[in-house]
Amino acid sequence: MTQSESTVRNTRRMPSYRTLWFVLFGGWLFAYADRALTGPVVTWMIDNDIDFMGAAQNPHALGGLIGSLFFAGYMLTQLPSGRLGDRYGHATLLSVCFMWAGLATIVSGLITGLITFVALRVITGLGEGAFYSNDRALIVAHTPERFRSLGLGVAITGLAFGLTVANIFAVPLLDFGVDVLGKDHAWRMPFLVFGAFTLGFAVVMWWFMRRLVGPIRPGPPLRNLMLISAVFCVLIMALFWLCDSVGLPEWASAALQVVLAACIVLVMRRRGSIGTAVSLKDRDTTLIYVAAIAILWSIWLFGYWSVAIVSSAAHSSLTTAGLVAAFNAGAGIIGFPVGGWLSDKASRRKMGRRNLLITATAVQGGLVLLFGAYLQFTQMPSLWVMGVLMFCTGLFLNAVQPMSQALTADLVGPKERGAAFGMWNLIGEVGALTSPVFSGVVRDATGSWSAAIYLDAALVIGSALLYFGVRRSAPRPTQSTTATATEVA
């Protein structure tokens, strides 16, 4: 919380921190619905040979690349927007990013052509990148410490609702689009409808943040965010154009975007202030950041391709597959808040947040492995069994995210949290960026989704091992602090 936000909070009656949780819950719902609907829409376009997807030689790889390019934009603005939130106020950045996201999603449904569609998805991601780091920091700033992880879990439960809404309603909206716009343009309808709802929610977000912190002054942070986004958009689209011109495979484009993100991290590490350096250079938080790659990889393997996985395995319709896939996304309705609640309990007991996080991550990895084996060794997988396995997998996947985020908050000081959460998601989004395209490449190469699921299981189990290296449970002492670090139980 900035000094101006703190002053206003002390002089006027504030909404409760629980109300803040549920407003940000809505933010996660709309943000994830907007980005997750691309998967079902691309799958529908592939199945119906529509527009630029119908002419693609490797359609699943191209579809995965489109999703990855969105996350390239979303990933690259994580750290800069977190630092802007630390400077101008986290509430201000949240108000700006939803207006941006709603407008960009609507325009995504109005344009024509592969290049412009990709560019709009990148621009949408660049705007939504301001949400994560500022949402997490605002919750931590306004929530009592004993409820910190629960608050993080309740708010991010909106992610599960957003994925569920996208999986359930994308296909009916496509069918509605066929009736209204014709088959060739039906893919536009989900973007127009979801974008309009997001824009409406942006008005609610703006009103609430004014109540929370006082007048919103978006000018300076918006100008800074637009300048940063313009640079990143040019870099991302230049990489895409270069790869397309020389004929590089889609996975090579995603790999180059990861290299771009790594260069940005190195620059920020070298130029960061003393406070920011703590969150960027600390060994323990770095292990958590790297382990987060597996969390985001899993979310977007299933969040982007779950409809395709189910329909391919069971030879079902997209509507039926969307309902089954919703079991994975819907598991977050339980997993996020329960994971946060258990993390708060564990932090006050001998087990500690870290050990609980290790256990939950290991169980998740085992369930993903089981799901891959079921698809590989069953000739006609049952929709019910797939639904149960996807629900159980999603339950633990969603539970580990607030545990990891709360552990990050424990390890950094209040003035560093925007930057720390930005770095968590910047590095973690490497998984979101690469998961759709690499999973699509593996699917095209093998003709099955099992290998892609096994790869996910290996990454998850590897992340559980990384958490063993985290040794502290409190901020590292700075020049003004003489307290010693607390060892993890």
UniProtKB/TrEMBL annotation:
Topology in the lipid bilayer: Multi-pass membrane protein
Alphabetized UniProt keyword annotations: Membrane, Transmembrane, Transmembrane helix
Domain of life of the native organism: Bacteria
One GO cellular component term noted in the UniProt record for this chain: plasma membrane
GO molecular function: transmembrane transporter activity
Domain Major facilitator superfamily (MFS) profile per the UniProt entry, residue ranges: 19-474
Classification via InterPro entries: MFS (IPR011701), MFS_dom (IPR020846), MFS_Na/Anion_cotransporter (IPR050382), MFS_trans_sf (IPR036259)
Compartments where located: Cell membrane
Main location class: membrane
Name of the protein in its database record: MFS transporter
